[in-house]
Every structure is written in structure tokens, then in C-alpha cells.
Amino acid sequence: MKNELKYLELKTGFSDDGPAWIGYVSFSKTGRMLYFNGKAFHGNGHGNCYDVESGELYWITGIKHNGDNRHPLGKGVIHMDKDAVEEYESITGVKIENNKSYKIITVQSTDKSRIRQMMNEKL
Q1: Phi-psi category of residue 47: left, alpha or beta, with phi > 0 → left and psi -120 to 50 → alpha
Q2: What is the model's pTM?
Q3: Which residues on neighbouring strands pair with residue 22, listed in sequence order?
Q4: Angle at 65 between CA 95 and CA 86, to 5 degrees
Q5: 122: left (phi over 0), alpha (psi -120 to 50) or beta
């Protein structure tokens, strides 16, 4: 399974300023399921994807090389996976430490077997 650095933003209940994260997502073998921070998302990681447990809609996309990931009208802190800081800074040139636009967090792994079991039960 490949891992990619992505920008994720919750859209359900928000306009362009929902909670947001930057971190590594992993993909299922088919590439139609993404895993990040204890959640599983259905989609291909380029646009609208939904949380398979809650049904909430997320915007998931690659990071922008200029570091301006939020919508121009959006606001709020972006939660940055501590393991992604170095690569993000290298790609964008944006320094994360002491930057009030970012909060460094520890991302939890996703229990993929739990997700598979849940998805099979729905059938």
C-alpha cells in the first residue's frame, strides 16, 4: 500500500473553514478507500470523499506547493501530522514550528480490519 501526503478538510456542516489536517493517508489495494487518523474514506483522494462510518463529506486532495491549502475564504488552524512536517516544509518552503496557522499533532493509525468487518456487515 502506498502512502501519500494529503490535505483533508471536513465539509459537512461547514463552508470552507471546517477542521483540516495534513498528513499521510494510505490506500486500499483498489485505491477506492483511504485511511487516515482512525478513519476510512470512500473515494480516490482527489476531491469529495465520505467517511464510511459517519457519512460526513470531506475534501481530500494533494497539498499545494505554495502552502496555501485552504480555500481563499476559509480560515482556521490546520492540524499537521508530526511525521509529515519535514516533507511538507521541503515541498512548500513553509515553516511549521511557531506558525500559528498550524498545530502539530500525532495521528493515530486506522484499524483496517475493523473497517473491513464493518463494511462487510453492511452487506
Answers
A1: left
A2: 0.91
A3: 7, 80
A4: 40
A5: alpha
Q: Which of 85, 76, 75 is nearest to 105 (CA)?
A: 85
- Nearby residues of 89 by Cβ (< 8 Å), 6 or more positions away: 95, 96
| Farthest CA pair distance, the chain | 47
Domain extent listing, the chain: 3-122
> Residue 8's Cα: distance from chain center in Å?
3
Residue type, 109: S
Residue 118 banded pLDDT, cuts 50, 70, 90: confident
**Kind plus residue range of the DSSP H or E element containing 5:** strand 3-10
Q: What is the pLDDT of residue 63?
A: 95
For the segment 75-103, the average pLDDT, to the nearest whole number, is: 95
Residue 98's Cβ-count burial label (10 Å; 0-12, 13-18, 19+) is exposed
Beta strands in 57-106 (DSSP E): 57-62, 78-81, 102-105
